[in-house]
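Please, structure for the following, as tokens.
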Amino acid sequence: MTDIVRILVVDDDPIIRETLSLNLEDQGFEVEGLPSGEALLEHLDSGATADLILLDWKMGKLSGLDTLREMRRKGGEIPVIFLTSLTDQIYEEAALATGALDFVDKSRSFSILLHRVRTVLAGRRPPREAEPAGTATNGDGPADSARIGRLTLDPDVGRAYWRDHLVPLTLTEFQIVHALAASAGRDLRYRDIYDLVHGDGFHAGAAGDGYRANVRGFIKRIRRKFEDMDESFSEIENYPGFGYRWRTQGTGGGGA
């Protein structure tokens, strides 16, 4: 990374704010900490900017969600990752619907957060050559979107649409769906999917096959989000012992 990347850490807990800032600075980022949503809005109103904002959800008078809403109302487009101890799916969906790019549980290790940060900073655009052959731009959807059956993917902003309705996927979940759909009809190994989440070669845990349980958890969550919108959803098939595939049109449903 040749250019200095600037990150704003917004959290009303001074210990979390300082610890996270120091860890990010150790990774070569330029970091500034702010104690509240009001301080962030004032900072941005003064003309300051950043490449990424890490935003706490639960803060004093102005919550992280309300802060983001106000940012977007004013036209601010800086990417935002929410940091929160609220793990219920309803909070995640509210964050994504308001314009956040990801939603990270504070209990996760710093290495997980760092991977999410680097993923967002990479531009949120998967390689063009990864798009499946034969996909067409959806004239009624976002520019540069790719359509695979009833799925529409917008790589520029990390958004997926099922039957033209937004699926509330986190950025990591979007990457998994994109990788599967881009290789529709072909099997992706558990390890390949795991590396999308944690980075190539990340230690999978003492169990050796711990990465498989991790991937199953992601797939279960992704399926649930699609099934909440369409009970007939069956595009993600399991190849037991190997991995998963996105089924092509006309093939049967998959396993668990």
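The domain at 128-246 is CATH 1.10.10.10 (Arc Repressor Mutant, subunit A). DSSP finds eight helices and twelve strands in the chain.
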